Backbone:
């Protein structure tokens, strides 16, 4: 509720985050430890995320399907690195219908194994490729430390799975879907991201290469906003996903998987919101405009409600609009409530406004007020929503740029990244041992190797001026990478 206090970001960012979720009524803790109940307002944001991503995924030729929640335990054991990576997080069913199961069933932590067992039945010839499948589902990972939206035992996500005739085809798919994620997060969520390749230590269990997009939150920490994996033939061999090529020879397919989850809702909250509550980018807002009519007498009430309804009808063709005509709450209380819930625009209409043929327009992010003639309201609302979307992106980009620092001295690195002041652009020798020592000493990890630098180095077009020495050990490094404390 609007009357409930929100801890300031400066005082306690983690508590502020939970307070925003509570006051905006986005989610709540479940009776089951580590799980969450997504409330209607939170789920409406997730539905917007789903819709925006689903359009993009289908536009690239993928089709939606659904696969079982339960996976035979033996399936996960077929790919050694995969089962090793997920073993600590598995939930396993051993009893069904009151009887001990002949084989335990794993509650889906991810679906590579169950999906590729079906691919082996569906793929016979090169004519069946590429096979492009997407799934919207829930997954379970037994997390020890949970936080609403960011890391919960059960969460919702999208996972794509594809099979290709060549390694090049799989790599192209992996990179294409990373770009789909980047475009969505930057365009719809108004959140700039750093695209790059994960190190071997950070890549997905069972993948050849993992790519990610990384976003900076207002506290300077990184949040992984999406991943895309080139799985090579690591799953096609154990699951016998083979096809007859054009020379009538049998070949193993090349696989990819990629996904994002409800942690994007958490990213949206931490990237844009303020001490008054949620700020939601207009393109993902469940409710775009709230109209607050103001009156003191029954005669004024009838007058302003009639005007408010006309405005609602005019705007409803393009946006979701609500008239808050509750007479048991004062206007100021309503303002605070809708601010905490992140509605992008508020319109205020009182008797004087009706007489002047105007309304007051208030933007949620800047809280600026404008007096707007009612006959221009559709144009103004469109302009204000579009400008707010752009401004949120630019504000987030400015924050990221100001809090990204090139660092060559290890003591300065530990002070900057260790205090979560932002991203550290620093050289790395490429050795996993050095990467692990930095993580142990600072809790910072390599978020990714920037794609432009990875590609330039691979093509032999890297700038000599980008070469340097590892921030920790002093060994040669071709280019700086992105380090940060991460959620």
Residues:
């Amino acid at each position: 509720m609007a009357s409930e206090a929100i801890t300031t970001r400066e005082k306690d960012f983690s508590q502020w985050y939970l307070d925003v979720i509570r006051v905006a009524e986005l989610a709540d803790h479940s009776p089951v430890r580590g799980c969450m109940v997504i409330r209607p307002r939170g789920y409406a944001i997730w539905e917007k995320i789903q819709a925006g991503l689903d359009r993009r995924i289908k536009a690239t030729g993928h089709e939606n399907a659904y696969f079982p929640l339960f996976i035979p335990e033996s399936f996960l054991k077929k790919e050694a690195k995969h089962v090793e990576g997920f073993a600590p997080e598995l939930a396993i069913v051993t009893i069904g219908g009151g009887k001990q199961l002949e084989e335990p069933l794993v509650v889906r932590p991810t679906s590579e194994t169950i999906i590729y067992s079906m691919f082996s039945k569906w793929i016979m010839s090169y004519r069946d490729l590429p096979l492009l499948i997407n799934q919207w589902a829930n997954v379970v990972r037994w997390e020890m430390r949970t936080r609403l939206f960011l890391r919960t035992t059960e969460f919702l996500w999208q996972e794509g799975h594809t099979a290709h005739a060549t390694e090049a085809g799989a790599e192209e798919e992996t990179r294409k879907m990373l770009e789909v994620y980047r475009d969505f997060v930057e365009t719809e969520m108004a959140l700039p991201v750093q695209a790059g390749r994960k190190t071997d230590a950070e890549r997905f269990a069972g993948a050849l290469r993992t790519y990610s997009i990384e976003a900076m939150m207002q506290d300077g920490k990184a949040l992984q906003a999406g991943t895309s994996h080139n799985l090579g033939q690591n799953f096609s061999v154990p699951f016998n996903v083979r096809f007859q090529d054009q020379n009538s020879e049998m070949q193993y397919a090349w696989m990819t998987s990629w996904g994002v989850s409800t942690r994007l809702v958490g990213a949206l909250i931490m990237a844009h919101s303020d001490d008054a509550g949620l700020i939601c980018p207009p393109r993902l807002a469940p409710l775009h405009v709230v109209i607050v009519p103001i009156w003191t007498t029954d005669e004024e009430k009838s007058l302003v409600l009639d005007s408010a309804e006309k405005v609602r009808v005019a705007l409803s063709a393009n946006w979701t609009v609500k008239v808050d005509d509750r007479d048991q709450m004062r206007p100021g209380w309503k303002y605070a409530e809708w601010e905490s819930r992140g509605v992008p625009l508020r319109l205020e209409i009182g008797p004087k406004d009706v007489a002047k043929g105007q309304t007051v327009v208030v933007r949620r992010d800047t809280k600026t007020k404008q007096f707007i003639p009612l006959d221009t309201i559709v144009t103004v609302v469109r302009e204000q929503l579009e400008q707010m979307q752009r401004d949120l992106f630019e504000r987030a980009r400015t924050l990221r740029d100001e809090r990204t620092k090139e660092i060559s001295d290890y003591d300065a690195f530990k002070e900057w990244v260790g205090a979560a002041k932002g991203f550290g652009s620093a050289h790395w020798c490429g050795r996993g041992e050095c990467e692990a020592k930095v993580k142990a000493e600072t809790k910072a990890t390599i978020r990714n190797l920037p794609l432009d630098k990875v590609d330039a180095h691979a093509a032999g077009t890297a700038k000599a001026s980008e070469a340097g020495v590892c921030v920790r050990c002093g060994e040669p490094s071709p280019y700086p990478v992105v380090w940060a404390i991460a959620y």
About this structure: The first helix runs from residue 13 to 23. The mean pLDDT is 96. The radius of gyration is 25 Å.
